[in-house]
Amino acid sequence: MTTDTLSRTDLAVRRINPNIGAEIVGADLTRAQTAAEVATITDALVEHEVLVFRNLDITVDHQIAFARNFGELTVHPFSPNMGDKPEVIVLDNHKDNPPRLTDVWHSDETFRDDPPLGTMLLCRITPEIGGDTLFASMTCAYEGLSDRMQRHIDGLEAVHDFKPFRTLFSGTDKDRAKLREMEDKFPNPTHPVVRIHPVSGRRILNVNPQFTARIVGMKESESQALLDFLYQQTLIPDYQLRVRWEPGQMAFWDNRATQHYAVHDYWPQRRRMERVTLMGDRPFGVETAETVGGDKIAALRTKGLTEGTGETARRQFER
């Protein structure tokens, strides 16, 4: 491979919303990506948090090969996987297979010690109407909080659990044994309520109603009240991107910095999606970042609400 090939890229990155989302134009996923193309997409993912690719004519093998440019793929322990390719999750919902468990705001698999870096979701079949996916920037969600609230939550930690998937196990001896096996494999990790993005240094609100169980060191009532308030930040339209799917369209999102919600309004129509997931690393919080990164990381601010005009945008509580 020549130096010219390594440096060549015809990709364009087009911002969709001011705070979250960009479209990647000119990507050919049927061939190997150049180093420059991988770098462009990687940088765009960190900056825009959700990337949309349109009009793709690719096989599942193309999707897998493309994803491996950005890290190692993982196998989901609970979701329906493609038989000969277990790293591919198949979400094929129709009248005989209603969608389940995804119409809740969440970041993928935070019940792991090392939640995923990112996820690629490829649309194969769309319903006639409905079936959108909503995304929310959790960097903007953090930045939109008051300074006092930010200081309050910066050092907190929360316990995470695979709680929605517990409903997949019945009361039989076999299922109880399998549930105990999964509890041993995923033993309620503790993650910072505010995590630091390992690339950008931005602060991210890191709790979600699907997998967060409680905040460490608080009474149950205190924990739930604070979590309910923090969960509501995904509902602010300024932080959201709504993706309307078409066959051959793919979204690649930074799971460290976003949450998403799959709308179930299309059922009993059919909707088929194929997903691959990239292995991540263990989240670290503000105190760790300031210890290892010093002033450089501590000084980094989130994008979106404070960039573009040279002035600090008013946040939700100031309006």
Describe it for me?
It is a single chain. The protein has 319 residues and is an alpha+beta fold. It has one domain (3-318): Clavaminate synthase-like (Double-stranded beta-helix, 4-Layer Sandwich), CATH 3.60.130. 25% of the residues lie in helices and 24% in strands. It is built from eight helices and 16 strands. The chain has helices at 3-7, 35-48, 60-67, 138-143, 147-153, 173-185, 220-231, 286-299, and strands at residues 12-15, 22-25, 50-53, 81-82, 85-93, 118-125, 133-137, 157-160, 190-192, 194-196, 203-205, 212-215, 240-243, 250-254, 258-262, 271-278. The strands form four sheets. Strands 1-2-3-14-6-16-5-4 form an eight-stranded mixed sheet, covered by helices on one side. Strands 13-7-15 form a three-stranded antiparallel sheet. A hairpin with a 6-residue loop joins strand 10 (194-196) and strand 11 (203-205). The chain is globular. It starts with a helix and ends in a 20-residue tail after the last helix. The model is unreliable at 1-7 and 294-312 (pLDDT under 50).
